[in-house]
Amino acid sequence: MYPFSFTKVSNTRDALNAGRRGGRYIAGGTTLVDLMRETVERPGTLVDISDLPLHGITVTERGSLRIGSLVTMTEAAADTRVRTIFPVISQALELSASAQLRNMATIGGNIMQRTRCTYFRDVTAACNKREPGSGCAALEGVNRSHAILSASDDCVATHPSDAAVAFAALDASVHLLGPDGQRKVPFSDFLLRPGSTPNREQALRRDELITAVEIPAHPRPLKSGYLKVGDRQSYEFALTSAAVALHVRGGVIREAKVAAGGVGTVPWKLPAVERHLIGERPSDTLWAAAAEQAADGARPLEHNRFKVELLKRTVERQLRIVGGSR
């Protein structure tokens, strides 16, 4: 680990000033400290923002659910409103990591975490995300865990967050605060596909802070859930996952929200699956037909071709779990 200075702030003004001077924000530190220890990240200054007034979970007048960026994963997963209104979020959080990590890690940090690609974390390997222009070792290397969707010729690393898959499915937005004031970014625009600039991962402007993640109100009743498939049941990153939310009224699916994780460079919305579901009556035949479209556009690599079929089966299984078997 390289030497660094450390400062703690208690208000957003001081935090933004420290960020303007080149400081890196830290709260739980469950990702950044790991990367510093591995010398992947080398910040000169860490700015502890854990005392900022960005805690708390509220339901707004519009009926949306707003989760402060410094709410821990444990707090969000256990909150009665989250569990009742959007169980898909609670389930995704509880399947994300060990209890010890969930007690420290924050919602803002979770969606900001960097890829778990082994080549990214190996400073001797070529990685355009870590060192632009150096190449992507995963393209010709062992790429079993890498992306089959939204990859580019410069990067095939997957985004590791489970909670982000639920947020993507539910059309969440990210609230930001910077020197120019507040703004809100749709979650689908917040995490960036790699393209030719994989080193730029979020739509954050210089010195901005994440203040909250907001999930809009959805028609009720809304049944939702999260399914994660990995090499082992606990403390493992997804080979594939599915976040599903369905609004069924009068025996017909009126609204469908579906996203996948573990298969894309960002949490991957599945609009073709959603369109296939809306206006139809739940049935095993429908789940299977909709899930067939989950891997549309997939570009598998040498070692991860199995993810195409695995993704379809995961989506079909979770549609059946949430929507019922008939």
UniProtKB/TrEMBL annotation:
InterPro entries: CO_DH_flav_C (IPR005107), CO_DH_flav_C_dom_sf (IPR036683), Diverse_Substr_Oxidored (IPR051312), FAD-bd_PCMH (IPR016166), FAD-bd_PCMH-like_sf (IPR036318), FAD-bd_PCMH_sub1 (IPR016167), FAD-bd_PCMH_sub2 (IPR016169), Mopterin_DH_FAD-bd (IPR002346). SMART domains: CO_deh_flav_C. Residues 1-220 form the FAD-binding PCMH-type domain. Pfam families: CO_deh_flav_C, FAD_binding_5. It comes from the Bacteria. Keywords: Oxidoreductase. The keyword Signal does not apply. SUPFAM superfamilies: CO dehydrogenase flavoprotein C-terminal domain-like, FAD-binding/transporter-associated domain-like. The keyword Lipid biosynthesis does not apply. This is Xanthine dehydrogenase family protein subunit M. It comes from Streptomyces phaeochromogenes.
